[in-house]
Amino acid sequence: MTWLVTGGAGYIGAHVVRALLQDGEPVVVLDDLSTGQSDRVDPAAAFVQGSVLDRGLVRKTLREHGVTGVVHIAAKKQVGESMADPLLYYRENVEGIVALLEACQAKGVDKVVFSSSAATYGLPDVELVDEDTPGVPLSPYGESKLIGEWVLRHCERAYGMRSMLLRYFNVAGAATPELGDTGVFNLIPMVFERLEAGERPRVFGGDYPTPDGTCIRDYVHVADIADAHLVAARALEDGRPGATYNIGRGEGSSVLDVLRVVGEVTGRDTTPDIVERRAGDPARVVAKVDRIREGLGFSAQHDLRSMVESAWAGWQQRHP
Ligand code: WQD
Question: DSSP 3-state assignment of 43?
């Protein structure tokens, strides 16, 4: 099978490309390089620069490379930006998937692995979020991912296009330093940036109803995320029906837990400033991961320390 990986020049996409290639799958990357970087694209993969919104280009790419399945990762992914510019998110993420699937339908490509998000759950009021927890997203970003899921489910029912919907929790770390996250939009890189500037890390709210008062999340290594895509792609190749899966570790870490590990790994003082809560942050979001373990035999292998160590190695390489 040949897999088209949209967004394959980005942080998560490049890890997925690496995992597919290492497993012997031919890969074509489609990326408009709006946030991706061409030097992340493995030379063993074919590279096409362009957008999923360019229906002609997508059809041509599917045809010329004999693509049989698509891993759709290309998307805008910043919650705050989506609140400020919702139309951008509806165009890139909603119109984007519709355009891509029209091209797939035209070319008979009927297997899709979709990058979804725990942001589809919104403010889940449960200890562990399972895949049937009702989704009430809080942002256009989360909505755009949930709509993508709806579109794919209907395509499965109407056209027999099977899809694996992977809801990532809090992705961190890097398989190699070169593949590290260059964006500074999430907790771990934001802490690194503060430490580098000689400032204290900030904790957004210390009065949440959690044991240490800070928010709890399910951090999952990007190499595990990539392996989950590989397992999902293989299941589609084996003729399995589509399904929705959480991709997390099923284990919660508070912001203070993360700061403690960052302190151990970097040798820096990570004593934080506790500041105001950030609007829209749920107190606790931790995945129930039984479905993917039982259904596809997948479970995450890397712990929080391995995420922080690999993220720090990448950060140091980019900030010598
Ligand atoms: C984690 C925790 C912050 C920075 C977001 C999206 C989600 C997904 C992943 C894309 C929160 C706290 C952070 C800081 C802090 N994105 N924090 N000080 O908000 O859980 O999830 O990214 O798919 O959809 O919503 O991730 O890394 O921003 O924050 O205290 O300097 O760290 O309040 O509790 P979040 P995050």
Answer: coil
